[in-house]
């Protein structure tokens, strides 16, 4: 079964809101094996809506509409579709009662235009709206399925999950499960990663493998279709094993995780403590680490030594070091890391010093970054980066590199 | 001129990402008076993309594409369109050099597939990519305009604002200017603010006033239409003056600014220095402050005293204070702020201590937060918050309240 998702609303075309409904529905349709080949957005305009519907009927079996079910004159989705397929609108008693109850509850007088929301297409299966007034509906006509859902995500999402999705599952002859898993990589570019797995990408069918890059990371989404969930997961596992055999050293986690979260979890698991000195990143590493619940068990604290005075006074970096090599130097990164570890008596420490940009500093280009890594029983190391991008991008990627180096050290110590 | 925005990418149809590009472009096209009647999303599929293009050519003068300009085999937008309109792809020397320079700078080997990104449609105006590798392009063919932009918003947005938008303005005969300005408020709820400006909201036509709430803030967007930019701006100014006369004490800035940025700019302007001690916010305040360029002039540094040991050892909070009152207390917030100001010898300091959640701490509910504010010549103050929401929300709003209190103190000292 192929679906097209059609959002109706001029506010989308004016750029006032984002069409998050299309993402939500696509994700859940993929899960039950319904292919989505198109999203369309059209305004609150009768003629243009009908043209879009006609086009969609040529290329999809299931048309899912969001928006245009409300009380105002702008809201015309069900009116237009009913006219197009030659259907009548009729009042739904349950919906009418629930709209009246709603107004009683909020102690407001129900204006007449609100009754319009209780009109549904004759013969349709009504989808109750537990978080608003306008009900949804599902109707079969001309060998197509038409599902109408309200526009506000707060109403649409629970309606689809509670009622709509099950209705669709019942329409499917056989439910083909679509399982997917995202592998996240850091420290390798998109094209370099692709070269490593090129044969897999070329021969993919089921599972499919889709690369995506952003914010200095690359992800590979592996998606498998099968009637049996177990078999689908096994198919994914085999592809994952092969990918990790090749580029496993850059892999850090699955799905929606972040590299800072993986680091925090590993430190918690091994009960190893960390302290941090941040200059160019200005607290960003620590704020990402402390976004993870329960991190107080392993995070001893840190110093944001943005000024050279703070580096000297609080982190005891030698004046000669800064005078001779500058604050953005291997020597400074090493001292920052080593002294921070000693001050907090932690198992590990990281230090970040560099030029976030947009301007040069001490003759060094924006994106020049040194990261120090101290361990209790090891020689302190420092890594140099030459990053490209905005101030925010340089700071974000510096934080990720810090996580990457420490994760690497932890995995070597295993 | 009518436009259709076509996003190309299977990741959109699988629901992995939201099509924020369509919103961004729609908003900016509306500003220059270009009507957008449709958004379309199609996958990385040559045949279906061409069908979408043919359909769009029937109903729009300008086709704007996002996505599919990257180095991988999935990326087929320009190849498909060039074939469709009978155009040739050719290497763009500037783009090729900039891709080579990028790889040289990040010290990575350029794989052959990256060269593909420098291919542009013959005769097109090239739009440089200042934040990535694949250039955009604008081409006139068959009496239609085709604009191709990269998919990642970080690349697409600056490319459109810096180059694409101006190219479009030059194509327009008469521009009806749509100007808009966002006023940002903190410390007042959406409905409370709405009550204050209710009559303005009810009578709005041109300019329009649109309230929006989120992340503990409220914004009012004022939008005016007029052929003359000057008149449109004057119309906005009059509405703004009236709004600020009523709720000016909660106003902190315009458009895309943040309250942390406004604070940083004011401190820079007055040359007043700040230092920070963060417990529950874990570096978030400092990372937002240091996101602002040039903040090193006034930010002396800070301590992330996540553990009680760090509060005692590094910020010299008395053991008795923590034993008697706990770390989440007025007394602890006051000592943290006062000692931090003294350690860094700054004009101001802020301290944050509280329970980010999701669990209770020391018998205190999640969302219980104390913020200390020390000034060089004033008595140190502390403010208590009882925030509701997720761990991330509590941390974010704590940071905003810290900015709010200090901005307020600065404005009183004026």
Sequence-ordered SSE layout with sheet pairings:
The structure is a homodimer of 414-residue chains.
Chain A lengths: L1 E7 L1 H4 L6 H12 L3 E8 L3 H14 L2 E5 L10 H9 L3 E3 L1 H13 L13 E3 L3 E3 L8 E6 L2 E6 L3 H19 L5 E10 L3 H7 L1 H6 L4 E7 L2 E10 L2 H19 L3 E4 L4 H12 L3 E5 L5 H6 L9 E6 L3 H6 L5 H7 L4 H15 L3 E7 L13 E8 L5 E6 L4 H22 L2
Parallel strand pairs in A: 1-2, 1-3, 3-8, 13-14, 13-15
Antiparallel strand pairs in A: 4-5, 6-7, 7-8, 9-11, 9-12, 10-11, 15-16, 16-17
Q: Tell me the radius of gyration of chain A.
A: 28 Å
The number of helices of chain A is 15
Strand order in space, largest sheet of chain A: 2-1-3-8-7-6
Structural class of chain A: alpha/beta
Instruction: Give the proportion of residues in helices of chain A.
Output: 40-55%
CATH superfamily grouping of the largest domain in chain A: MoaB/Mog-like domain
Silhouette of chain A: elongated
Query: In CATH terms, what is the fold-level topology of the largest domain in chain A?
Result: Molybdenum Cofactor Biosythetic Enzyme, Chain A
Q: Report the count of strand segments of chain A.
A: 17
- Number of domain modules of chain A: 3
If interface size is counted as residues with C-beta under 8 Å from the partner's C-beta, which chains form the largest one?
A-B, 92 and 88 residues
Any idea what the CATH architecture of the largest domain in chain A is? 3-Layer(aba) Sandwich
Strand content of chain A: 25-35%
Organism (chains A, B): Bacillus kandeliae
InterPro entries (chains A, B): CinA, CinA-like_C, CinA_C, CinA_KH, Competence-induced_CinA, MoaB/Mog-like_dom_sf, MoaB/Mog_dom
Family (chains A, B): Belongs to the CinA family.
Protein name (chains A, B): Putative competence-damage inducible protein
């Amino acid at each position: 079964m192929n679906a097209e998702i059609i959002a109706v609303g001029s506010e989308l075309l004016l750029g006032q809101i984002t069409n998050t409904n299309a993402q939500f529905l696509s994700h859940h349709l993929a899960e039950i094996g319904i292919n989505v080949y198109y999203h369309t957005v059209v305004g609150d305009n009768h003629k243009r809506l009908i043209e879009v519907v006609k086009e969609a009927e040529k290329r999809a079996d299931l048309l899912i509409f969001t928006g245009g079910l409300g009380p105002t004159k702008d809201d015309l989705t069900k009116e237009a579709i009913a006219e197009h397929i030659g259907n009548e609108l009729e009042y739904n008693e349950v919906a009418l009662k629930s709209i009246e109850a709603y107004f009683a509850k909020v102690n407001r007088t129900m204006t007449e235009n609100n009754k319009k929301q209780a009109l549904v297409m004759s013969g349709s299966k009504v989808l109750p709206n537990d978080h608003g007034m306008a009900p949804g509906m599902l109707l079969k006509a001309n060998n197509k399925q038409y599902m109408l859902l309200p526009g506000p995500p707060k109403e649409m999402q629970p309606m689809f999950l509670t009622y709509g999705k099950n209705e669709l599952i019942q329409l499917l002859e056989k439910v083909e499960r679509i399982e997917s898993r995202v592998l996240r990589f850091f420290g390798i570019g998109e094209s370099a990663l692709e070269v490593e797995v090129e044969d897999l990408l070329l021969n993919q069918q089921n599972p499919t493998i889709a690369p995506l890059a952003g914010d200095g990371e690359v992800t590979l989404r592996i998606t498998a279709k099968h009637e049996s969930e177990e078999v689908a997961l096994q198919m994914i596992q085999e592809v994952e094993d092969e990918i990790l055999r090749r580029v496993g050293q850059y892999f850090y986690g699955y799905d929606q995780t972040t590299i800072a979260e993986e680091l925090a979890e590993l430190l918690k698991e091994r009960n190893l403590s960390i302290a941090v000195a941040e200059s160019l990143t200005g607290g960003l590493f620590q704020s990402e680490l402390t976004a993870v619940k329960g991190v107080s068990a392993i995070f001893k604290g840190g110093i944001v030594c943005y000024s050279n005075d703070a580096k000297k006074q609080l982190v005891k970096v030698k004046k000669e070091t800064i005078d001779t090599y500058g604050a953005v130097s291997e020597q400074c990164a090493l001292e920052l890391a080593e002294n921070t570890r000693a001050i907090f008596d932690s198992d590990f420490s990281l230090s970040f010093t560099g030029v976030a940009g947009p301007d040069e500093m001490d003759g060094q280009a924006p994106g020049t970054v040194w990261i120090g890594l101290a361990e209790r029983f090891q020689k302190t190391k420092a890594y140099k980066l030459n990053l490209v991008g905005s101030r925010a991008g340089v700071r974000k990627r510096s934080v990720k590199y810090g996580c990457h180096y420490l994760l690497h050290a932890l995995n070597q110590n295993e």
